[in-house]
Amino acid sequence: MTPLVSIIMGSTSDMPVMQEAAKILDHFEIPFEINALSAHRVPDAVMDFAKKAHQRGIRVIIAGAGGAAHLPGVVAALTPLPVIGVPCRSSISIDGWDSLLSIVQMPPGIPVATVGLDGGQNAGILSVQMLATGNDLLLKKVSEFKETLKNKILKANEELKAFPFKFRVN
Length: 170
What we know:
Blueprint: E1 5-9, H1 15-27, E2 32-36, H2 43-52, E3 60-66, H3 71-78, E4 83-88, H4 97-104, E5 113-114, H5 120-132, H6 136-160
Parallel strand pairs: 1-2, 1-3, 3-4, 4-5
C-alpha cells in the first residue's frame, strides 16, 4: 500500500499531537506514513524527503513542530505538494506562540496551510478534504463525517434542556 499522506514531526515529543492526525487518516482508511524529521538535527534527510515525497506517491504532507518550528516551512520550500503545518506546544516553546508564528508567517510563494496550536486532528481532516477534491467516494465520507459533527451538537442541545434554571427562556 502506497502512503498518500506523510505525517512528519520535529521530535517524537510531538507525537501526542500528531497521532490525532493519524487517527483521522485511519478513520477514513487513507494510507499514511509517520516519521520524525528535524529541520535542525537532520537537515539533509529533510531535504531529501521533501524533494522526493511526490515521486513516492505522497499527495499531502502534515508537518508538526514546536519551538522554532522550521520544519513545515523548510519542507514547503522544497516540495510541490501542499503542506499543512501543526504548531505544537513544547517544553522549549513560548506556550506555542513561537511555533504558531514560525509556521503561519511564511514568505510569499511558500504557503503552509496552518491549523491551530496542537491541531493534529484538524490537520488530519484538512488533508482528507484535500484528497477528497479528486475522489467522490472520499468526498461522501467527509460529508458524512461533517453530518456526525452536526448531530453531536443537536444532541448536546437536547441534553442541555435537562438543566433547569428559573429564568431560562429556551
